[in-house]
Amino acid sequence: MSCDDHTAQNDSASVEATFGSAIKDNAVVKGFVTIIKNEGKEDEQVLCRNKPNLLTNNGRDYAIAQFYTNTTSGGVGMNFIALTSDSTGADATDTTLPSEITTNGLERALATTISHSADTNSTTLNKIFTASGTHTAVQMSGTFNQLAVGGTIAHEAVFTPVTLASSDTLSVTWTLTLG
Amino acid sequence: MGLDKTFKDYANDFSCDTLDQWIEHLATVELTYTGNSACVTCGDSVEFNWTGKLKNGLTYPQVLCEVCKLQ
């Protein structure tokens, strides 16, 4: 397989990104989020591109448990992606994604792409959601360690609110660094 | 001096702070990517272990499943 011929990004798309004051620069895990509506289609819209995310307090504790304090088998990776229309913003003290969407194609899902390159500190998660109904003002995403609602939330990121009609897609990409 | 920026490539003694710089770097060095992704043609889940330079503007390879490769 060759990757040389693929050019999937539309660099001419408009970019709207707000860098939040709540970013924890000393976080053990840093990350960037890119969210694109209808990627690759005529009406493609970049909702945020390479925006730093927030590591929740619980997410930090979970990472530390995996590394240092667990005395039994480790937990599942933070590779489930969730969405919400909640407008309260990302908060390190969140233990859930407020008003998490659970229906019509935008419910929490395992990342379709989970990729890590050896000898680097970078990992990528990607999921392309396809709406099966109307969703208004979707504006925040989070990562979790399980498919069912609940579990531990690790990261949160806010993006430009977007309304999706049935069959619209939303590509959510988390690029995470550890160490 | 150690690598002190956000993105780190230990094998090639490189680090940078922005994702754009990281993507540029990934296009210049051969790295091995492991994980799983959807086949770009049919959408089936594919496990991959791919080594190469990423020139697709992404941070992961785009893969084909065995069936689509043969078509």
Question: Would you mind describing this structure in some detail?
Answer:
Chain A is mostly beta strands. In chain A, 7% of the residues lie in helices and 40% in strands. Chain A has one domain. Chain A has one helix and ten strands; from the N terminus they run βββαβββββββ. Chain A has a five-stranded antiparallel beta sheet with strand order 2-1-10-7-6, with no helix packed on it. Chain A has a five-stranded antiparallel beta sheet with strand order 3-9-8-4-5. In chain A, a hairpin with a 4-residue loop joins strand 6 and strand 7. The longest helix of chain A is centred in the middle third of the chain and has 13 residues, at 57-69. Chain A is globular, with a radius of gyration of 16 Å. Mean pLDDT of chain A is 86; it is low at 1-26. Helix content of chain B is 18%, strand content 31%. Chain B has a two-stranded antiparallel ribbon. A two-stranded antiparallel sheet of chain B has the order 3-4. The N and C termini of chain B lie far apart (49 Å). The mean pLDDT of chain B is 93. The A-B interface holds A 1-4, 6-9, 11, 30, 32, 50, 112-122, 124, 126, 175, 177, 179 and B 6-12, 18-20, 22, 26, 31-38, 40, 45, 48, 50, 52-64, 69. Strand 6 (113-117) of chain A pairs antiparallel with strand 3 (31-38) of chain B.
